[in-house]
Design brief:
Structural class: mainly alpha
Distance between the termini: 60 Å
Mean pLDDT: 81
Radius of gyration: 23 Å
Strand order of the largest sheet: 1-3-2
CATH superfamily: Gap junction channel protein cysteine-rich domain
Number of domains: 1
Largest sheet: 3 strands, antiparallel
Number of strands: 3
CATH topology: de novo design (two linked rop proteins)
Strand content: under 5%
CATH class: Mainly Alpha
Length: 219
């Protein structure tokens, strides 16, 4: 998979972000995307081939693997990366709309089309809410699909066509556990950053509106 599009998207969003938003971009790019491409993808690369059961009954290993790993960790992680980055497109599209509107009418409507205010502020807040919601949804999904944030060394399977309860062994469980904890930690960090930025923007513009009203009353 080529991650060039996601990298370009994050770089583009960085121009319109607040300081907290830029930290979020750095975390997603350096601690999630690069770790995924450089290391995590290789660890899960042959997970099906390296999944072994102590019986050679045809179809048993495949059925047990599908039962314990209905969706590959690494594919779900890739989907999570894509989904939590996609709401940022709303901001990019809104800025592009502003710039095209000025170009089409050959008139200056905004002091700075990329400044977070007015309608763009609402779009930015919606993107933060969506990113936070998606992060939480994927964490819950990970927890439900794999019965917790853990990689067992041994799983017992009694699903047909296995003739009885068989022992199945997962390859590199310690490595996978480390990266799974890293995934959960970075997701939680991104949720905290998104909520912090959301609170900061709401507080900042609430104060700004209050001061404007106060000045008008004084006048």
């Amino acid at each position: 998979m080529s991650w060039a599009f996601l990298r370009d998207l994050l770089s583009g969003v960085n121009k319109y972000s607040t300081g907290i938003g830029r930290i979020w971009v750095a975390v997603v790019f350096m601690f999630r995307l690069l770790v995924y491409v450089a290391a995590a993808e290789n660890i899960w690369k042959h997970e099906h081939d390296e999944f072994e059961c102590n019986i050679k009954q045809p179809g048993c290993e495949n059925v047990c693997f599908d039962h314990f790993f209905p969706v590959s960790h690494i594919r779900l992680w890739a989907l999570q990366l894509i989904m939590v980055s996609t709401p940022s497109l709303l901001v990019v599209f809104h800025v592009a709309y502003r710039e095209n509107r000025e170009k089409h009418h050959n008139q200056k409507f905004y002091r700075n089309p990329g400044k977070i205010d007015g309608g763009l502020l609402c779009t930015y807040l919606i993107s933060l809410i969506l990113k936070t919601g998606l992060e939480i949804v994927f964490l819950v999904l990970f927890y439900k699909l794999y019965n917790g944030f853990k990689i067992p060394r041994l799983v017992k399977c009694d699903i047909k066509p296995c003739p009885n309860t068989v022992d199945c062994y997962i390859s590199k469980p310690t490595e996978k556990m480390i990266f799974l904890y890293f995934l959960v930690a970075t997701s939680c960090l991104c949720i905290i950053l998104n909520l912090s930025e959301l609170s900061y923007l709401i507080f900042k513009y609430s104060i700004k509106c209050y001061l404007k009203r106060h000045v008008k009353k004084q006048q």
